[in-house]
Design goal:
By secondary structure, this protein is mainly α. It has 5 helices and 2 strands. InterPro entries: GHMP_kinase_C_dom, GHMP_kinase_C_sf.
């Protein structure tokens, strides 16, 4: 009870199931792919916040702002406890999304505003790290 092992394990197993589901949704490539992937991201954040308790109020606020600004899905990343958020946003909404997040999260707070240029940016998914072997 003190370490909340059942609660933590529920998050870990749920997160593993979401990863498997995420891959299967990507592989299927249906018309609902983006919506389904966004929902999996949202579920992941809720689990990190509620079961693993590795979020913080500022990060929850940022995720909420991102969703209201047009993200299909948004979640903490970088181990939580004050890490950062990653959001899935349709490319045609990227500029308005950035402006809305800037206005709602960064601009009102001078400390956040000072970090905005290095903290708020657009990227695209890639294949990740790989190892090249010479033959």
């Amino acid at each position: 009870m003190q370490f909340k092992l059942h609660q933590r394990a529920k998050h870990v197993y749920g997160e593993a199931a979401r990863v498997i589901r995420f891959k299967s949704v990507c592989d299927a490539g249906s018309a609902e792919t983006i919506t389904m992937l966004g929902e999996l991201m949202n579920q992941s954040h809720a689990s990190c916040r509620d079961l693993y308790e590795c979020s913080c109020p500022e990060l929850d606020q940022l995720v909420d702002i991102c969703l209201k600004a047009g993200a299909v899905g948004s979640r903490l990343t970088g181990a939580g406890w004050g890490g950062c958020a990653v959001s899935m946003v349709p490319s045609q909404k990227a500029e308005s999304f950035l402006q809305a997040v800037r206005d709602a999260y960064y601009s009102p707070d001078p400390r956040r505003a000072a970090m905005e240029k290095q903290s708020l940016f657009v990227t695209k998914p890639g294949s990740g790290a790989s190892v090249l072997l010479e033959e």
